[in-house]
Each structure stands twice: as C-alpha cells, then as structure tokens.
C-alpha cells in the first residue's frame, strides 16, 4: 500500500490551509454565534476549486481525486467544522451523486453551476421517520405523463435552504421491497412546492445550513430523474461510501486542530510553578491524541487510496469513519480538559471543536451503523 501524497495534493493542502488561516479563522466564531451561513465566502470557495474538487475540468471543476477531497475537508476542519461540513456535503453528496450517476445532459446543466457556486448542492435522503433505516423513507414520486410529482418531508438537509438544487430520494414503487423501489431526482430549489420549512438550531456546526425541507406537489420532468427508476437506493449507498471518507477526514481535521490548540495552551499555562506541559498527566493525553490521530489518518487515506484506484472500499470507509470520529471526539474532549476552565468558556476555540466533532459520530451513518456495515463484511467472508 502506497498512498503518499502527490505534489498536487501537497499544494492543495497548503492553499486550503492558508485560506482557512487568513479568511475563515478570524470569523468562524462569529458565524457560529450568529448561526448565519456566510454566503459572501462562496465566490472565494469556487475560486479555490473547493466547490468542484472531483468534477472534471470539462465542467469547470478541479478534476482531482477522492484523496484531494479528503485533504480539502481535513484542512477546513482543522479550523472550522461548519466549513468542512459544507465542503464535504456539497462535493460528496449532491454534486457527487450527479457526477457519478447523472447523464451527460444533466452534468452539463448542473455541474458548472455547482462548481461556480451559483448553485450549492443539497442531498435529501433522511426524513423525520427514517435516518439509520434510510430505506424506510416515505417521500413519494408518482408519474404524471412525462413528469413526476414529489411529495414528502426531508430532515437535516445540508444546504437545504441556500442550495440551488437538491438531489431527492423518493419512493417510486410502493409494493417493491424497501431498498428496490427508490429513485433519485434533481430538484431545482426554485421549483414551486419545494420549501425549506424549518431551519434547525444545532449543538455544533452551527453556521452550516441544516433545514427540514417540505416537498408539496413538486413537479419535475423525467429528464431530472437521476439514474435508473427504482435503483436509487443502491446508488445512494455508493454515494455514502465516499461521503463517509469525507466525514472521517472532517473528524481527523477537527482532532488535529484541537491537538494543536492543546499543545499551545499546555506550553503557555503554568500551575504549581511550571508549565502544565511538564506534568505527565498532560503529556499522556497529548501522546494518546497524537497516536489516535495518526492511526485515523492512515485509515482515512487508505480508504481514499482504494477509492482512487477503483477498488471496493465500503468497509474501509466505514472503518475510517468509525475510528476517526470516535478518536477525534476523545481528542477534542481531552483538549478541552487540558484547557481547564478557560476551555469551557467561549473565549477559546476548543469548545467549538468539541461541539462540531460530535456530528462526525452521527452524520452519514452513526457509529452504530458503521459497526453494522463492518460486521456485515466480516461475516460475509
Ligand atoms: C448536522 C447534520 C447534517 C445532516 N445532513 C444531511 C443531509 O445533507 N442529507 C441527509 O439526507 N441527511 C443528513 N443528515 C442526517 C443524518 O445522516 C442522520 O441524522 C443519521 O443518519 C442518523 O439518523 P437519525 O438522526 O434519524 O437517527 P436514528 O436512525 O433515529 O438513530 C437514533 C439512534 O439509534 C441508533 N440505531 C438506529 N438503528 C440501529 C440499529 N439497527 N442498531 C443499533 N443502533 C441503531 C442510532 O445509531 C442512533 O444512536 C444530517 C444530520 C445532521 C445532524
């Protein structure tokens, strides 16, 4: 296994790192407090190629690979979870679904808009009554001549209110087994009946746009159907495989960012006449954090490397997400402990990292779901 980063990957890492230090870090806390998505950063994200990382150059994208996608998300997350979640979901879910399963006409119509930031992408699988059991979704799409009529409610939709289009998963065969009768559709969010019905107030990743979406008699042409009829659920599982690598990378970045903060604080803060970094109890927390994050990094980039080679990586993506998210949550918690009482205040960034990282154990399949996926693979062999 040889997944060393290329020069192009290193350049990407450095450019995202510089951008985040200069243009995100100074504002991230204010945006988090106000829970306002800073639309003013979208043109710059587009300019940096962060809105079309894996989109071929023919459609205006950066034409890079899954490893690049993970690197970009990791670097964003070191500074800000909301930014990482925005980049991960826009690239991996909505845009990723179009890229992987769209026909040429659909790609030409939507990808350039996604890449330029004219239309951020949303992706709607989850519903109020179905999350982990995604195949139990109840949104329907029924045929009406050459069109489809969509009805239902979607929950936790990232970019659901600010996005220009949303890939919606809907039931197209009531009598088929749950995983067989689901189809994907591209819905322009200006279509009558598409409504961001409720903005959700969150514990972490607060400026990322998360909304409930109502679909009320939404009419879409059959040309907006994405992939084959009744096959959308299988396609969705493939999209989630790549998405899980990005959530694992997000966890890794948040953990690395928290460790950097903890190291700086431990060197600076004194107690009992010396820097707290000299106490073994503090050193062991730092050592454990470094060890866990290095292991997480290997798992994240192993999964990305397999994806880039066109090999199967479902299990490896789940392993990476499970390990990285749980490790990073521990690391952020320990980093807060190292900050003592000051870490508990909103004067320091660490509390935001600790809030943001929790999402990584939940979104795109909870830790329990990742264990189910991994166990299924182990038992199959
Ligand atoms: C900030 C945020 C952004 C999101 N963005 C999107 C998005 O853009 N698009 C989208 O479609 N979805 C999105 N989601 C939804 C996310 O993927 C779901 O929240 C997640 O899959 C869990 O579903 P649930 O919340 O319904 O929890 P549930 O499925 O109700 O799970 C509740 C608990 O039960 C456990 N559980 C469930 N089934 C089992 C089982 N068989 N065995 C053991 N334990 C089980 C779970 O692990 C969990 O601990 C987002 C969520 C959040 C919080």
CATH topology of the largest domain: Butyryl-CoA Dehydrogenase, subunit A, domain 3
Secondary-structure content class: alpha+beta
Please summarize the sheet with the most strands.
Answer: 4 strands, mixed
Helix segment tally: 11
Strand order of the largest sheet: 1-4-5-8
Low-confidence stretches: none
Beta strands, count: 10
Cα distance spanning the termini:
22 Å
The small-molecule ligands in this entry are: flavin-adenine dinucleotide
Gross CATH architecture of the largest domain = Up-down Bundle
Radius of gyration: 21 Å
What is the strand content? Answer: 15-25%
Taken from the alpha-carbon principal axes, the silhouette is: globular
CATH superfamily of the largest domain: Butyryl-CoA Dehydrogenase, subunit A, domain 3
Number of domains: 3
Q: What is the overall pLDDT average?
A: 97
Return the CATH class of the largest domain.
Answer: Mainly Alpha
Element layout with pairings:
Blueprint (H helix, E strand, L loop, with lengths): L6 H28 L7 H6 L18 H14 L1 H21 L2 H13 L4 E4 L15 E5 L2 E12 L6 E7 L10 E7 L5 E6 L10 E12 L3 E2 L5 H37 L1 E2 L2 E2 L4 H29 L5 H25 L1 H4 L6 H8 L9 H14 L1
Parallel strand pairs: 1-4
Antiparallel strand pairs: 2-3, 3-7, 4-5, 5-8, 6-7, 9-10
Helix pairs in contact: 1-3, 3-4, 3-6, 4-5, 4-6, 6-7, 6-8, 6-10, 7-8, 8-10, 8-11
Bound molecules: flavin-adenine dinucleotide (FAD).
Flavin-adenine dinucleotide binds next to helix 4, strand 1, strand 3 and helix 11.
